[in-house]
Input
Amino acid sequence: MILYRPVGTKELQLIAESDYKEFPPRLSEQPIFYPVLNEKYADEIAKNWNVKYNDDHKGYVTRFEVEDGFCERYEPHIVGAEYHKEFWVPAEELEEFNRHIIGKIEIISEYV
Output
């Protein structure tokens, strides 16, 4: 399954440090990791959230593939419009989630 993750520069640097193979652990105030199910929604978050609230006013969209069978354990949540779909991965499951990423995480968009 192809998923997307909008990120800021700090998170992107941590992804790069893993050779684009995994997402960094969540911060203590972040109980879930939320990959999104379509690029349009990821673009909106990167443009409207990351650019506005990150210190350097940059936002990125990453794309990555996760084993289909693994994703079946997560129910898609709609958090706004019909296309605002995301999985809610508990922070304590992120390490296992990362092990099911196929290939590398790629940057497909940058916003400033």
Notes: Residues 2-111 form a domain with the ADP-ribosylation fold fold (CATH 3.20.170).
